[in-house]
Amino acid sequence: IRGEWQPIAADSQFGSPTLQRLAHSEVEPPPACVAALRSLIEGAAPANSNVLRDALQVAASADSDCAQWLVPRAMSALDETSQLTEAHWPWLMAAFVLDVDRAFAWLARRLAEAPAGDRRQVAESLGANLLNRRQHGIVVNRPDYMRPGFLRHFLPWLIENVRPEDDVEHDGIYSPGMRDDAEHLRSVLVEQLASDPSVEAAAVLAELAADDSMRAYRDYLLRLMDGRRSREADEFKIEAADVALLLAEKQRIPRN
Question: What pTM was estimated for this model as a whole?
């Protein structure tokens, strides 16, 4: 890994062969490998963004405490730039899956005064990478950006910048592009909320359905809420002791 960290050219489409194998392996790397990788990540970033992406993927998957050191390193790298370049996308994606509040706050500041076209382009790239359909995606078991509390704010932002009325219509067979991936992410995140059994997710769904910025999705959200209530009713179980309690304490004799 050390030998492949810097020599690979920035414009090379191929990264580190060793890191590529580790990033896509289901077998955890040995602790010594993870420790060595951390020392490299905390030092000078490699010239090739594919090398960096694979390194961050291995660290995020193999080191259970990586958020404590990787997020500050990622935010430090992002703070060094005034614009989101190819070299900085892996850092942003790592922060998004580990500490999305800090990552999204940074992104919002950078885009606060950006033209609408630039915001749209960044939103499309972000959506495609969050689906792991582009080269900078980082995959972990429980990505932080899937939290209901974050989705309450992120979904309206995503719909504002990847507007349903601008969706691309394709005829016949086609290869999905970045815009198609970003469009698909909107539905993926809404369905994630609907499948989340937590009380918080149910409350967020209701808030989004009432949010005027989500009007294009309102009917869809209401249908998902009805489906969620139906599933909860189907899963409701009553025991014999509950019946006895209802008869003893809740039954009322008709008055007429």
Answer: 0.83
